[in-house]
């Protein structure tokens, strides 16, 4: 299982008003663990008022930049991103897991490929890492970037992209599509939708027939539209690589498991079990597991190993208390939030409320 | 670009998820089930086949069998690594169950699984010697090919990619089995091989699941399934029947 490591913040730069680029240095000899592949992300953890939050941010550095860098854009109401933008400073220590993710293709200096990247807003971070690495390591490949933003002043890495255009003249091209700012070419104004992509392909701005691989990172509707246009243009699923960091990332835990009615004599528990949006209240003995109680009552509760190792049967205890006899899959922070492995959990209190949908 | 869309409607519209942080709870559970079913089947399949390596009539056959065992274990590992990103301890998982365990050859469990693991029911039946193992591997290998084509399109991109890498390896196993049956037909009694086909045919057929599954719609909206069980089974039946007929055998 992946572990968290300490990283020192060695530099923080603002790229636009509400986004920072944070340079990190692994400490305690963990440098090797952080040898990333272009396009991967880091998962950070940080305590906020005693509650642990985890957030993933893509590495924006290229393989040959010799540094580890992530871009963090502030999200409204986002505790982690606000903290990173407003409070984080050089010299601080943060904790992250080693790089993960498969948003990349294998590079080979002999390749003569044409890559196409789509990035929406802060979705540029992994795409920047990919295009920098690709241009440096495949001298005969080209990269076209379609970069969607609200307006000129929200374009992250704008200058860096201009510099790259000069460095890799003829091999790197950027098309900025701006939602609100008018541009000389009408086609470059608005949202990057399926129709917009089709127009870019049909008008010759992008020679889609020559494209080997496309990378897409942005919000959900944009990803859907672009993928549809690419498929229509003849690309198959193996040629389209996605990275999604949804806007609707689960927020802070709202409720904690509370234990009430702890004292009890009888061997019976009333369990309210929610699954797929409906709640069933069942009477169960305290010597059977929550999972078995659900299954015995014809609920199609998820499970696989029944040995506490796979976590398929995870559910959340909202009220009451259960005793989880084995846990080889959930981490401490999940347990703190009330998650249990239902195959290993026996009711302790006379009433329990559990939810498989949370 | 800030327009909001729920993960559920994104998936229903054909969107893909790329890392554990966006995966909704019910999706996570179904995805984990899909992965454990594959891993358990590969581990149980490899373990069962390992026992017959030495029954191979010649060194070529033993090499082929050992390669299949190695590669099926490796395929399990590929998917186990993805489970690891969801917090599963892969080392412990690989050892939490005796994968060589089998039921009786005439046990009647239909498509149901035993309660301890998620292997497909077919992997609960023991192999009866070399020829039987080769026939089972041919029929199941063809079924895996059909399943891999389906699961290479799942909406969890890392898993879809793993299955795309696994598919040609599994396809090769079915080819090796076909070559194996061909070789056996030169020396073995045809009736014995036909008896194995008759034994395994309904059991492999059952591994496609029931025709009318309530789950199907839910899985479809999550992008974890595309084709109905019955259609996958029909495809397998047609393809495998043709191969058997070419070999001079009859589909069950």
How are the SSEs placed, and which strands pair?
The complex is a heterodimer of chains A (358) and B (252).
Chain A: E1 5-16, E2 19-26, E3 41-48, E4 51-58, E5 68-73, H1 79-86, E6 93-96, E7 114-120, H2 124-137, E8 142-149, H3 158-167, E9 172-178, H4 194-202, E10 213-217, H5 220-232, E11 240-243, E12 268-275, E13 278-285, H6 290-296, E14 314-319, E15 322-324, H7 332-336, E16 339-341, E17 345-347, E18 351-355
Parallel strand pairs in A: 7-8, 7-10, 8-9, 10-11, 12-18
Antiparallel strand pairs in A: 1-2, 1-6, 2-5, 3-4, 3-6, 12-13, 14-16, 14-18, 15-17
Helix pairs in contact in A: 4-5
Chain B: H1 7-12, H2 25-50, H3 59-84, H4 90-94, H5 129-151, H6 157-187, H7 190-206, H8 215-221, H9 229-247
What would your notes on this structure say?
The complex is a heterodimer of chains A (about 350) and B (about 250). Chain A has about 350 residues and is an alpha/beta fold. Chain A is about 20% helix and about 30% strand. Chain A is built from 7 helices and 18 strands. Chain A has helices at about 80-85, 125-135, 160-165, 195-200, 220-230, 290-295, 330-335, and strands at about 5-15, 20-25, 40-50, 50-60, 70-75, 95, 115-120, 140-150, 170-180, 215, 240-245, 270-275, 280-285, 315-320, 320-325, 340, 345, 350-355. The two termini of chain A are about 25 Å apart. Mean pLDDT of chain A is about 90; it is low at about 250-265. The termini of chain B are far apart. The model of chain B has no long low-confidence stretch (mean pLDDT about 90). The chains are: A alpha/beta (about 350), B mainly alpha (about 250). At the A-B interface, β4, α5 and β11 of A face α2 and α6 of B.
List keywords for this structure.
heterodimer, A: 358 residues, six-stranded antiparallel sheet, five-stranded parallel sheet, 7 helices, 18% helix, elongated, B: 252 residues, 9 helices
Helix-strand pattern of chain B: HHHHHHHHH
Main sheet: strand order of chain A: 4-3-6-1-2-5
Mean pLDDT across all amino acids of chain A: 89
Distance between the termini of chain A: 23 Å
Tally of DSSP β-strands of chain A: 18
Largest sheet of chain B: none
Oligomer designation: heterodimer
What is the radius of gyration of chain B?
A: 19 Å
The string of secondary-structure elements of chain A, in order, is EEEEEHEEHEHEHEHEEEHEEHEEE
């Amino acid at each position: 299982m992946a572990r968290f490591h300490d990283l020192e913040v060695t530099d923080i730069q603002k790229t636009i008003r509400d986004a920072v680029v944070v340079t990190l240095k692994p400490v305690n000899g963990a440098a090797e663990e952080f040898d990333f592949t272009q396009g991967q992300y880091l998962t950070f953890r940080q305590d906020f008022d005693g509650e642990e939050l985890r957030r993933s941010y893509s590495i924006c550095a290229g393989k040959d930049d010799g540094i580890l860098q992530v871009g963090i854009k502030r999200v409204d109401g986002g505790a982690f991103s606000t903290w990173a933008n407003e409070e984080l400073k050089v010299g601080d220590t943060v904790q992250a897991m080693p790089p993960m993710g498969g948003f990349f293709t294998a590079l080979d200096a002999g390749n003569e490929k044409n890559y196409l990247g789509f990035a929406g807003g802060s979705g540029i971070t992994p795409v920047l890492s990919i295009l920098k690495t690709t241009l440096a390591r495949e001298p005969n490949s080209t990269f076209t970037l379609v970069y969607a933003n609200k307006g000129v002043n929200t374009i992250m890495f704008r200058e860096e992209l201009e510099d790259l255009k000069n460095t890799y003249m003829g091999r790197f091209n950027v098309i900025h599509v701006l939602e609100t700012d008018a541009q000389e070419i009408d086609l470059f104004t608005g949202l990057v939708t399926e129709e917009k992509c089709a127009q870019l392909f049909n008008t010759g701005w992008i020679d889609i027939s020559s494209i080997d691989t496309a990378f897409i990172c942005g919000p959900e509707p944009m990803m859907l539209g672009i993928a549809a246009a690419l498929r229509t243009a003849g690309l198959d699923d193996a040629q389209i690589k996605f990275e999604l960091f949804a806007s609707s990332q689960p927020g802070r835990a709202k409720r904690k498991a509370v234990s009430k009615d702890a004292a009890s004599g009888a061997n019976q528990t009333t369990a309210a079990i929610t699954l797929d949006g409906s709640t069933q209240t069942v009477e169960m003995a305290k010597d059977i597991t929550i999972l078995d109680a659900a299954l015995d009552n014809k609920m199609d509760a998820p499970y696989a190993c029944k040995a506490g190792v796979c976590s398929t049967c995870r559910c959340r205890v909202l009220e009451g208390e259960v005793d989880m006899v084995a846990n080889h899959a959930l981490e401490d922070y999940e347990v703190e939030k009330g998650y249990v492995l239902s195959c290993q959990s026996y009711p302790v209190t006379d009433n329990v409320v559990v939810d498989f949908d949370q | 670009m800030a327009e909001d869309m729920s993960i559920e409607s994104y998936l229903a519209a054909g969107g893909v998820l790329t890392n554990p942080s966006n995966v909704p709870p019910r999706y996570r559970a179904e995805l984990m089930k899909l992965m454990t079913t594959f891993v358990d089947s590969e581990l149980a399949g490899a373990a069962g086949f390992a026992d017959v390596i030495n029954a191979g009539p010649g060194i070529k056959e033993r090499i082929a069998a050992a390669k299949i065992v190695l590669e099926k274990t490796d395929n399990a590992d590929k998917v186990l690594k993805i489970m690891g990103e969801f917090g599963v301890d892969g080392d412990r998982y690989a050892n939490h169950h005796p994968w060589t365990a089998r039921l009786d050859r005439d046990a009647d469990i239909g498509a149901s699984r035993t309660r301890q693991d998620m292997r497909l029911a077919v992997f609960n039946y023991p192999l009866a010697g070399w020829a039987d193992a080769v026939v089972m591997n041919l029929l199941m290998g063809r079924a895996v090919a059909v399943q891999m084509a389906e699961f290479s399109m799942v909406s969890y991109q890392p898993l879809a990619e793993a299955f795309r890498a696994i598919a040609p390896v599994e396809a090769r196993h079915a080819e090796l089995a076909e070559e194996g049956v061909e070789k056996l037909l030169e020396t073995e009694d045809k009736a014995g091989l036909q008896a194995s086909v008759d034994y395994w045919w309904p059991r492999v057929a059952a591994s496609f699941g029931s025709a009318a599954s309530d789950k199907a719609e839910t899985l479809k909206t999550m992008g974890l399934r595309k084709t109905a069980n019955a259609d996958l089974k029909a495809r397998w039946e047609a393809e495998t029947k043709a191969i058997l007929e070419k070999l001079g055998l009859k589909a069950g």
